[in-house]
Amino acid sequence: MRHRARGTPGQGAAGRVAAGEEVFRRYLASQKLKMTGERRRILAEVFSTTEHFGADELHLRFVDKRIPMSRATIYRALDHLVKSGLVRRVYLDQKRAFFEHVYGRKHHEHMICLSCGKVIEFSDDPLEQRQDKVCRDLKFRPLRHSLRIVGLCQKCQ
Amino acid sequence: MRHRARGTPGQGAAGRVAAGEEVFRRYLASQKLKMTGERRRILAEVFSTTEHFGADELHLRFVDKRIPMSRATIYRALDHLVKSGLVRRVYLDQKRAFFEHVYGRKHHEHMICLSCGKVIEFSDDPLEQRQDKVCRDLKFRPLRHSLRIVGLCQKCQ
DNA sequence: AGTATCTTGCGACTGAGTCGCAGTAACAAC
DNA sequence: GTTGTTACTGCGACTCAGTCGCAAGATACT
């Protein structure tokens, strides 16, 4: 069982952004879409943090920096980032979608503390393997999955 | 690995409703809430099917039967049913909440076919045990969890 | 029956996310 | 670099699930 804390990337933020931009550019080209200043700025902002964030939260970061950016553009760019595989949409609560960048990070699941809201990420190979077995048994071809465990973290128990 | 198809309850619908009503009544009393005609009718309707349903869908069933029932009442009753443990709120897609009654049924997870929308329920003890182990290792006390596997069912592959 | 308390229905509201449109920017071809 | 095509942005209006406040009505306790 492996548990990697947030904020320990294998490379610096600048490197991640540059590599991510290249991947994004390839995705855009493959879809006959264009790389624009807005998309570049959104990508950089998304890769500048390792925390989960909501769409409006991301929008606010631009507002705070006095960088003009409409909500619609944020939503549209996030859709593309998800489709490109750079970003994952996760449902931590039922109110709204959260996003996290995924590029160069191992797949992981989430534990969410009911009391303090803390989100713990974890990954576990035996768990994944067991899921695959269940899918094989039911002849289901899994494309993606998400496991959400809600409970109490060590501090809040 | 166990896979139980929908629609094979251990007892008839009438028995399930009666037993469920008793549980619900106890929950209501414990919360100083009242058993009303609306709540009884909603409970009966919820237990009349083993399929997943949305709140508005449930509301429509009453409208169709010319039984007066407001949307607000449906939402409020569903909240209570969930708190009483009789009903589970599940997030099959990201648009809205679905509900399924849980009383007398084994805990299960969902596979969702991207192509035809079919929902397959399954349960697997080794999977549950492995989740528990991961929680123990991280000192997290799990209260509930949900695993959603999205992919293609046998027919759609 | 009387009364305190909870419930209902209504309609207005919220908040995340979407959409159509008119003007603007990216990019490929010359 | 100019041009033409196509995609993009911002705006504001819209949608849709879900929530809320309130006045009138139902429940349950004594």
Low-confidence stretches of chain A: 5-10
Q: How many strands in all of chain A?
A: 6
As an assembly, this protein is: homodimer
Rg of chain A, alpha carbons: 17 Å
- Mean pLDDT of chain A, nearest integer? 93
Strand numbers in spatial order across the main sheet of chain A: 1-3-2
**Treating each run of at least 4 consecutive H or I residues as one helix, how many helices of chain A?**
5
Distance between the termini of chain A: 22 Å
Q: Which strand-content bin applies to the residues of chain A?
A: 15-25%
Structural category of chain A: alpha+beta
Main interface by residue count:
A-B, 38 and 38 residues
Q: What is the string of helix and strand elements of chain A?
A: HHEHHEEEEHE
Short description:
With about 160 residues, chain A is α+β, with helices and mostly antiparallel strands. In chain A, about 40% of the residues lie in helices and about 20% in strands.
Task: Give an overview of the whole structure.
Two copies of one chain form a homodimer. In chain A, helix 2 (37-47) packs across helix 4 and helix 3 packs across helix 4. In chain A, the strands form two sheets. A three-stranded antiparallel sheet of chain A has the order 1-3-2. In chain A, strands 5-4-6 form a three-stranded mixed sheet, with helices on one face. The radius of gyration of chain A is 17 Å and the shape is globular. Chain A is built from five helices and six strands; from the N terminus they run ααβααββββαβ. Chain A has helices spanning 13-30, 37-47, 55-64, 71-83, 125-137, and strands at residues 53-54, 87-90, 98-101, 109-113, 119-122, 141-152. In chain A, a hairpin with a 5-residue loop joins strand 4 and strand 5. The longest helix of chain A has 18 residues, at 13-30. By secondary structure, the first copy, chain A, is α+β, with helices and mostly antiparallel strands. Helices cover 41% and strands 20% of the residues of chain A. At the A-B interface, helix 5 and strand 6 of A face helix 5 and strand 6 of B. Strand 6 (141-152) of chain A pairs antiparallel with strand 6 of chain B, so a sheet runs across the interface. Chain A binds a DNA duplex (30 and 30 nucleotides) through helix 2 and helix 4.
